[in-house]
Target: MarR family transcriptional regulator
Amino acid sequence: MTGNDLYEELTRHLSAVGSVRRKLGRILPAGCSDASATMLAVLGRHGAMRIGRLTELLGVDPSVTSRHAAQLTMLGWVDRKPDPADRRSSILRLTSEGHAQLAELSDRRSRELAARLAGWSDEDIRRLAWLLSRLRADFDAQRTGQHTFADPSEGARRPRTPAA
Amino acid sequence: MTGNDLYEELTRHLSAVGSVRRKLGRILPAGCSDASATMLAVLGRHGAMRIGRLTELLGVDPSVTSRHAAQLTMLGWVDRKPDPADRRSSILRLTSEGHAQLAELSDRRSRELAARLAGWSDEDIRRLAWLLSRLRADFDAQRTGQHTFADPSEGARRPRTPAA
DNA sequence: TATTGTTATACTCTATAACTATA
DNA sequence: TATAGTTATAGAGTATAACAATA
Model:
């Protein structure tokens, strides 16, 4: 059962991330929930998109995305226009107010993180971000079955920059 | 504003950890909540302790620890005996049923993680666990004020093995 | 018939505030 | 008076299921 302790330790530290996230959440501007902040960040990073794409990127149920998107729209931070390619859907895009809110968020977070991570090198931060993105990518990948070994026809399929 | 993008990326990936944790939570045995699993793991790793210590380790409000500890006690997985040093408090300890439950949890998680992290080296896993523990430690540290620079009297106070 | 998204509902986790018992 | 822990309550975030509109 080699690696059991390794997994146990990783799981414990992953659980503890919640504490960090809650502390980061306390610096949010009034009226901006944690979920709103996350959604603004994704739209800011990846640009306009449909609910379905946002759902994938957030890793939640579509019903959750739908509710939060409605919230952001009501706040005037996100604009929806019909998707010409599929009338069941619409395109979400940050408004100028949304961009402003995101900028305010980023400023606050930068100040907080600069203080908290004073002892971290840029390389440390990049490494952590990279490992987390890889973790997320490996959990998003469909389990292809119960076989233990990878398909031999796929030599180096490990993504080098997952979800950049 | 150097490092802003670095921070933005880190924050986004930290948010995405929730998705990973929820997927790991789906393999829990019936009757064992995610919070229960976390508490069992901490008690298994650090041994018997009081509510206060558990509260620190979990990084939540004492009221939360109290409620979940009551739950685990009711399930028979944790035993409470009076703290001889302070009658306001009591000592929490895993019962044999608690140990068994924790073992079952660890087995399930090991299988899941072994499948998900097939492409990871032990070193990758250790590095991620280490960076997360350091992140947590730096967020737990009391902000000593608004000064930007560390107290010169403290040479190398960066913990080398935070919350091991 | 399948897919995209929405709504109603319920559940988990957490924080705040008020409280009890002991230090 | 201060501290350890408990309980009541409220709020945020998410999932499930049923549904509407369109592909």
Summary: The CA atoms of residues 144 and 150 of chain B lie 9 Å apart. Strands of chain B lie at 49-50, 78-82, 90-94.
